[in-house]
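Quick one: Site-specific DNA-methyltransferase (adenine-specific) from Mariniradius sediminis, structure tokens please.
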Amino acid sequence: MKYKNIREEELKNKVGADWFKSFDTTEIIGNIDFSVFPKQADIFGRTPLLWAEAKTGNFDIPTMFVQLILTIGKARTFDKTLPPAFLGAFDFKKIAFVPYISVQDIFYLNDFNWNVTPSNHDTKEFKLIKERVETNLKQNSYVYDYEKDEKELKHFVANNIAKATETSKIKIDKNNFIPIYLRWLEIVKPIIDVGWDDLKKANILDSDFYLADLFVDDRDTSKIEDDASIRDNLFVIFQNQGYKIAKENIKQMFDATINIRNKETYQQFWKRYKRPPIKEFQNYIIERRDLLVPQDIRERKGAFFTPRQWVELSQKYLCDLLGENWQEEYFIWDCAAGTGNLLAGLTNKYNIWASTLDQADVKVMHDRINHGANLLENHVFQFDFLNDDFSKLPQGLQDIINDEQKRKKLIIYINPPYAEVSSKAEKGKVGVNQTKTHTKYGSILGTAGRELFAQFLIRIYSELNGVTLAEFSTLKILQGSAFLSLKEHFQAKLEKIFLAPADTFDNVKGQFPIGFKIWNTNKKEVFENVVADIYDKNANFIGTKGIYSLNKNQYINKFISIYKATKENNIGFMDGINGNDFQHNNIVYVLNTKEQLPNPRGIWINKDNLIPVSIYFSVRKAIEANWLNDRDQFLNPNNNWKADKEFQNDCLTFTLFSNNIQTKFGVNHWIPFTENEVNAKEKFESNFMTDFIKGKIKPEQKNEGQLFTEETINTDNKPLEFSEEAKEVFKAGRELWKYYHQQKDININAALYDIKLHFQGRNDKGRMNAKSTDDKYTELIGDLRQKLNLLADKIAPKIYEYEFLKL
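--- reply ---
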């Protein structure tokens, strides 16, 4: 057996290296075991080639495929990212493939429970899918033994996997034909060689060309043309790799073929979708031609314009939760509509309501209705949601919110303004939170009331209870420490959530997540945790993330507060003890003294708390902040770190070579080497750190109530023992210090900051330059940074193991 007696992760690595080395097999898609992508992207990104199930035993092929199908169906991965050309399954002996298109109908089964555990082979759902796929697999699967069929397997991968993107297509239905149109406008319309203004005079619109594209059969381009019931309702048809105006439908004759300037771009776009649309939706799409109207959307002042990809995805999530016919069964009210772009793609105008603060925005929406937008004029109105009484609403909407049963069928669908009040006018919008809603619910909102979206949430929950709330906002309602009071009151069930980068929204520069959350306010539930889907800036599904609700006693600053010290006999000061999440890490510093700062909030450092301070500092700094973890909270850990001396000493090492100590602000107690180690020309003013490392400085024991016992610190007068990674950092640092001490006109007591300043100098603005002209120094500092990064990578898993962060 080629891969016998190895673990699953190793099996996946070996299969990737042995059979798919020309591809990228590193990307993780949700809970799917193994994926294959081309190494190079096309103009639309990378199209997946294979999703596969991996097993370390010797499994029958149908069982492996059923588990994969249940995994995909449970997460609806095919809706979140483009499906692959093939599905696969492999164990230590064999590998099998099946075209995705041959099994994709399974994912559209009605009345099927996709929430079963995929690995439970005894469920009725597992048995039902297995029964369906077994016959299919006999006809459509390709099975290879790694050893017996080596040549055939290589041939299949080279001639099918690598060239098979044609088969991975998204079906077109009534819920996605409008979002696909919006993408078509961006990519296909610009390459159609036609005068749009001339056509518009004859009432031929770009949407007519889109419909012509939809009703092409990918297998036989003449098939739809011969279907009179479709052709009679098309103003434009696709013919001979171009477009023809359908003479039967208009009096004016256009005889010439309208060409496509870039046929490769056109073909690449339509590779993603299976044409024509699903049969049962074809007449609906033809009848709702009026919905395909380009929208000239302005940004609403004070609010965040919702990008098209998130509008499309949010409606897909609503469809997943509420069912295929959700737009017929539910009412929708966007009470922060701006000019209405969040409503693009919705089809049932009789169930849609839109209100906005500014009358100018109402006029824009009314103007769009006159040009074909899918809204009713009397359903679009001016309303100040945070100040106005509901009696000002249109009677039809009042009837819905005043009827308990109808209210349960109301979706409040919003991207509310994120404006936040600030004490500084240039950083916030002073007074923006002074509303009737804030006055009424101020005691519940607390400091969360500074943010307008929190006021929207509290009024909706308190006065429209029972509705489905579908909203875009930051994760503060889930994680923010300032939102604790609001969270206690806001007890709704979080049904679904996805995360997107905030900087994809207009006018947002910050690196943090925006969440689309669907709340069921009819179900009372205190939010504790959730697993959220994650999408990158291009709306590609990239995995999941746990999000947790915490209380103030769980935060990391509770941990460090135990180790507060007095100013006497201090060796430095750590600032930044006033925020618990990644976004506040940039204010965490180890300095000489608190007097260096205008508003210090930190802790003095001495021999008694050096290790806990180093742990706190390293935990906050070892993992790089990014848009996804920006709001993650650092926590008061479990007690297991206390017995891990290697972890403690790794953190000390990391802090020694990452601090901002400067000799101009006082004695440098942080030199990690003796004079002899770096060939210093004079004696150092302080040998505190090397004495501490050698065990010559004994911290005082505290009482057990303060959790500072001899097991947590170096109380036995023995030298500290360091890991190999930490030793490498010391080695790299030693070479840097030695090189510095060979220079002329140096500071004998220099700290790391002083050494960098010596070689890099300052610019005209007084800031340290980013680079040095000294090649030897550049090499040495680069080596130190590399070794420090490796040490950080070693520390990171322990941060999660000891629950300083939650996965």
